[in-house]
């Protein structure tokens, strides 16, 4: 008691299954096994969110340089930043909260954590892609201060087999 | 061991050499000792001491199988030489033959050995073999030798206690108390307290409760274990019918530990409220609940005695359950499950939960509450065996919170109840992958894999929590050395199911009458599988039998340790537990499995005896085929080696697949006798167990011990028949079988057959008056 009912915790080798499960049930996209293994590397920003000690949400992001262009989802997943290039943005790869636990401030808490981490890296921009048909998410991001770019990424989710596979680009200055 | 002190001038050079060798032996310099002894024996091959010592030495270094022969030779040359006797005792102790060890240590002492510690060793042997009669003497003699240690006094008292000579036990303890009183240091206080309570325990057993209570009060300043003091006191007061005083003590005990359910029952007994109206009892518990608001029993216990028809039941149940549901307590179902034995209470509880689900839940903003109530309902319907409803509930919960491990456990259980073991294991494993650190679900997944006969997957799963030495494939060896009996017994049962499955397939194949190349190959493969898994099943079962031998041998250390530490009460408990060790659930499960395999092999042996000749022809046929298979064989050999490495139970296991165990059983005579040896302890320790009597019945029939077989039927009838008018089919069949077998046995003593017949008729009167068919009809339930 007295403690916040929502709390954040680290991802470890032992609870990676939880991360997988949350992604599986909430996101239309899929991730290869190696991608999950890489989650434990230190250059990632990764966190799990717990509601009443039950894991219900997750976020994972990486640093990029926004001058690079990524035409597709796979491209984006595989992209590793060359250590010589200075990153200027944090890109959110996964941001998910179980459906039954939305509207309880869990996403906000995860986002705040991400913003803090971004600032620690002296980076001031957070970017992400949203499927054009995912209006609920879009609204949520806009509500939290993200700005939608006028460009639309054509066929970004094509390989994932989504209908209307285009994506919006959203960004937030921190 | 120590040789004679102040060694005299030896009569012969051999004796001198021998004493030299003995010293070396005591110093563990076995090689040097062996040299001297062998020199002795060269000169005089019948030097008894040297022979015995040689036996002891080669037990440590050299060919163990030859050791006993030397010891026996030494004994036969000079059985009254106490040194020889002592060495023989030491030898038999080291091979854990405690009965022989006791015999020879006693002989050493009787033949005038000046070495008094022999008596102490002897007392350990006697306790180990439960020879309490002689134990008393050896403990007493050792006490006379060393009266300065309290441990030796305690030892004598324990010996008297075990001989049920309670008076002498108490007077021994009282005597040492008096002697030691003035000399106690702080370090002795615990021992003092334990010995005083031990004395009191014996006083209580002796039946003189008033004296026990008076002594207890008198000794109170010396007692450190106040919990035992209070429990003894309350018990004595109850026995003396001073219930009001007892009630006061039980209230004090409740203050110490308000979660101990038995105190509540005892308090009620002392207050005499058990037979009073429910309302009065409810008032009592309401009061107690106010005193101990954080304790479960005062809230739960009223639900056990309030009848479901009393409107108070629903009220109280609601008060108990709803707060737990509101807080989302995972164990809610487990908490109320004992009440489900009463179907009417079950209905009331179901109503309360569903009512909460429909009316209260929507008002709650916390989504986890929804999951926990679905979790409750899934378990509820599973209990009622309404599997479809249970599945629906658990699936809804899983859709809502797929990261909650507990849900997978219940889901797997539901699927298991449908008999789909493999599917259940997959679900359990899905839950396990969410939290690899969770030992509980790891064990569950292991068990479910074993139930699905997937032994490899099971061992790989649990290997996450075992010690893995370098170059080791899995935790199988560690599971053996850590004595993880539940995994071993489940593995054995899985292997048993596997070989039975292959046996079934083999039978089908033979019945189909196919004679093609492929069918031959398939047949060979099936035969091989049957043997492999049968061997492995035997191997795992035997591993547990071995572990239980270790459990029994392990008490050896406590015969001295508990006396020195001054914990005689726990020591007595341990001995009692060891006396019943073979009646524990895991061990009886092992014996059940083993007996089934043994009987099966015996039946095959009998079958073979009938059709002796054709078997040799068949093996020739197999040989012809062999050439073609050579190439394939090399491949399978590698596969086999891998398989063996996975199932090894110890490092460099000589018989990883249990093939040797199996061939010993199948090719040798006396399998029935072996099984009988396994069941012998059960005949004592688990007389009232169904398994014991059923197996012994079969064994006695085969051994021609018909009177004993009759006894097992009578016992079975007693334990299986809970109501007088029910006549069980299995009993009826056994009666007929015994009668027929004994009559058809031409070698049986006719007098005995008559006794058995008479016994059957007097125990089961209808057997004498009705024809067999009619009789069996009565015994058909």
State the name of the first-level CATH class of chain A: Alpha Beta
**Could you say which structural class the secondary elements and strand pairing of chain B correspond to?**
mainly alpha
Principal-axis shape of chain B: globular
Poorly predicted runs of 5 or more residues of chain A? none
Largest β sheet strand count, sense and barrel closure of chain B: none
Give, in spatial order, the strands making up the sheet with the most strands of chain A.
1-2-3-4-5-7-6
Elements of chain A, N to C (H/E): EHHEEHEHEHEE
Helical fraction of chain B equals over 70%
Query: What is the CATH homology-level superfamily of chain A?
Result: Gcn5-related N-acetyltransferase (GNAT)
Q: How would you name the oligomeric state of the polypeptide chains in this document? A: heterodimer
Gap between N and C termini of chain B, in Å?
Answer: 65 Å
Radius of gyration of chain A, taken over Cα atoms and rounded to an integer in Å: 16 Å
Largest sheet, strands/sense/barrel of chain A: 7 strands, mixed
CATH topology (level 3) name of chain A: Aminopeptidase
Structural class of chain A: alpha+beta
Quick description:
The complex is a heterodimer of chains A (174) and B (781). With 174 residues, chain A is of the alpha+beta class.
Question: How is this structure best described in words?
Answer:
The complex is a heterodimer of chains A (174) and B (781). Chain A has 174 residues and is of the alpha+beta class. Chain A has one domain (6-173): Aminopeptidase, CATH 3.40.630. Chain A is 27% helix and 30% strand. Chain A has five helices and seven strands. Chain A has helices spanning 16-26, 33-38, 73-78, 106-120, 135-143, and strands at residues 6-9, 45-51, 54-64, 89-97, 125-131, 147-153, 167-173. A seven-stranded mixed sheet of chain A has the order 1-2-3-4-5-7-6, with helices on both faces. In chain A, a hairpin with a 2-residue loop joins β2 and β3. The termini of chain A are far apart. The model of chain A has no long low-confidence stretch (mean pLDDT 90). Helix content of chain B is 76%, strand content 0%. The model of chain B is unreliable at 2-7 and 615-624 (pLDDT under 50). The chains are: A alpha+beta (174), B mainly alpha (781). The A-B interface holds A 5, 13-15, 17-18, 20-22, 24-25, 51-52, 54-56, 98, 100-101, 104 and B 328, 366-368, 370-371, 400-404, 433-437.
């Amino acid at each position: 008691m007295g403690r916040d009912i929502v709390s954040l915790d680290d991802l470890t080798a032992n609870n990676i299954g939880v991360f997988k499960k949350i992604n599986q049930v909430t996101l239309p996209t899929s991730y290869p096994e190696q991608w999950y293994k890489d989650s434990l590397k230190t250059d990632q920003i990764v966190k799990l969110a717990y509601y009443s000690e039950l894991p219900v949400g997750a976020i994972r992001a990486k640093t990029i340089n926004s001058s690079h262009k990524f035409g597709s989802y796979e491209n984006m997943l595989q992209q590793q930043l060359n250590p010589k290039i200075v990153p200027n943005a944090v890109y959110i790869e996964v941001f998910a909260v179980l459906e039954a636990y939305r509207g309880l401030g869990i996403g906000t808490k995860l986002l705040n954590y991400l913003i803090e981490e971004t600032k620690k890296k002296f980076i001031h921009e957070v970017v992400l892609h949203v499927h054009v048909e995912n209006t609920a998410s879009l609204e949520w991001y806009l509500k939290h201060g993200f700005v939608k770019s006028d460009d639309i990424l054509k066929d970004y989710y094509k390989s994932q087999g989504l209908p209307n596979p285009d994506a919006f680009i959203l960004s937030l200055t921190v | 061991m120590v040789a004679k002190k102040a060694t005299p001038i030896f009569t012969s050079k051999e004796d001198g050499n021998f004493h030299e060798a003995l010293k070396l032996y005591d110093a563990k310099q076995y090689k040097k000792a062996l040299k001297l002894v062998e020199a002795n024996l060269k000169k005089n091959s019948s030097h008894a001491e040297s022979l015995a010592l040689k036996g002891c030495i080669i037990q440590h270094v050299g060919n163990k199988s030859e050791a006993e022969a030397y010891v026996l030779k030494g004994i036969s040359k000079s059985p009254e030489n106490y040194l020889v006797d002592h060495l023989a005792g030491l030898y038999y102790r080291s091979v854990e033959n405690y009965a022989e060890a006791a015999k020879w240590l006693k002989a050493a002492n009787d033949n005038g050995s000046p070495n008094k510690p022999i008596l102490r060793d002897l007392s350990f042997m006697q306790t180990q073999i439960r020879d309490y009669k002689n134990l008393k003497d050896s403990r007493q003699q050792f006490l006379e030798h060393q009266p300065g240690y309290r441990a030796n006094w305690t030892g004598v008292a324990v010996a008297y206690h075990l001989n049920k000579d309670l008076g002498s036990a108490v007077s021994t303890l009282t005597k040492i108390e008096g002697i030691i009183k003035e000399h106690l240091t702080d370090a002795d206080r615990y021992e003092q307290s334990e010995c005083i309570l031990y004395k009191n325990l014996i006083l209580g057993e002796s039946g003189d409760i008033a004296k026990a209570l008076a002594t207890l009060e008198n000794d109170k300043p010396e007692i450190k274990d106040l919990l035992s003091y209070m429990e003894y006191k309350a018990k004595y007061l109850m026995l003396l019918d001073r219930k009001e005083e007892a009630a006061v003590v039980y209230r004090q005990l409740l203050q110490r530990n308000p979660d101990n359910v038995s105190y509540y029952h005892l308090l009620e007994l002392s207050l005499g409220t058990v037979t009073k109206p429910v309302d009065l009892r409810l008032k009592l518990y309401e009061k107690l609940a106010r005193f101990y608001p954080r304790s479960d029993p005062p809230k739960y216990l009223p639900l056990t005695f309030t009848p479901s028809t009393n409107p108070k039941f629903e009220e109280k149940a609601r008060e108990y359950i709803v707060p737990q549901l509101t807080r989302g307590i995972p164990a809610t179902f487990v908490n109320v499950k004992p009440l489900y034995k009463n179907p009417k209470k079950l209905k009331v509880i179901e109503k309360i939960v569903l009512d909460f689900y429909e009316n209260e839940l929507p008002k709650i903003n916390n989504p986890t509450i929804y999951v926990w109530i679905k979790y409750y309902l899934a378990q509820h319907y599973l209990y009622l065996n309404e599997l479809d409803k249970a599945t629906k509930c658990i699936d809804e919960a899983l859709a809502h919170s797929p990261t909650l491990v507990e849900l997978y456990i219940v889901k797997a259980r539901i699927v298991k109840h449908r008999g789909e073991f493999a599917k259940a294991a997959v679900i359990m494993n899905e839950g396990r992958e969410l939290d690899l650190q969770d030992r509980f679900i790891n064990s569950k997944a292991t068990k479910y894999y074993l139930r699905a006969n997937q032994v490899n997957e099971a061992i790989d799963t649990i290997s996450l929590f075992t010690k893995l030495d370098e170059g080791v494939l899995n935790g199988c060896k560690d599971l053996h050395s850590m004595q993880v009996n539940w995994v071993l017994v489940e593995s054995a049962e899985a292997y048993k199911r596997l070989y039975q499955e292959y046996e079934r397939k083999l039978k089908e194949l033979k019945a189909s009458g196919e004679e093609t190349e492929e069918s031959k190959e398939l047949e060979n493969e099936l035969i091989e599988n049957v043997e492999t898994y049968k061997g492995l099943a035997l191997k795992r079962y035997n591993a547990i039998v071995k572990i239980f031998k270790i459990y029994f041998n392990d008490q050896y250390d406590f015969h001295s340790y508990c006396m020195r530490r001054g914990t005689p009460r726990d020591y007595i408990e341990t001995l009692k537990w060891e006396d019943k060790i073979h009646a524990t659930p895991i061990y009886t499960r092992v014996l059940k499995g083993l007996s089934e395999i043994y009987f099966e092999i015996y039946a095959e042996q009998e079958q073979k005896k009938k059709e002796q000749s054709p078997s040799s022809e068949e093996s020739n046929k197999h040989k012809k085929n062999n050439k073609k298979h050579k190439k394939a064989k090399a491949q399978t050999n590698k596969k086999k080696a891998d398989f063996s490495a996975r199932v090894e139970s110890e490092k460099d296991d000589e018989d990883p697949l249990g093939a040797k165990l199996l061939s010993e059983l199948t090719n040798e005579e006396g399998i029935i006798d072996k099984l009988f040896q396994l069941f012998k302890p059960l005949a004592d320790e688990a007389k009232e167990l169904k398994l014991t009597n059923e197996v012994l019945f079969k064994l006695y029939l085969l051994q021609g011990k018909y009177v004993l077989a009759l006894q097992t039927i009578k016992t079975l009838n007693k334990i299986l028949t809970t109501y007088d008018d029910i006549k069980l089919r299995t009993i009826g069949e056994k009666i007929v079988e015994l009668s027929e077998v004994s009559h058809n046995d031409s070698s049986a003593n006719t007098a005995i057959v008559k006794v058995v017949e008479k016994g059957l008729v007097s125990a089961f009167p209808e057997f004498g008056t009705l024809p067999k068919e009619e009789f069996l009809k009565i015994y058909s339930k």
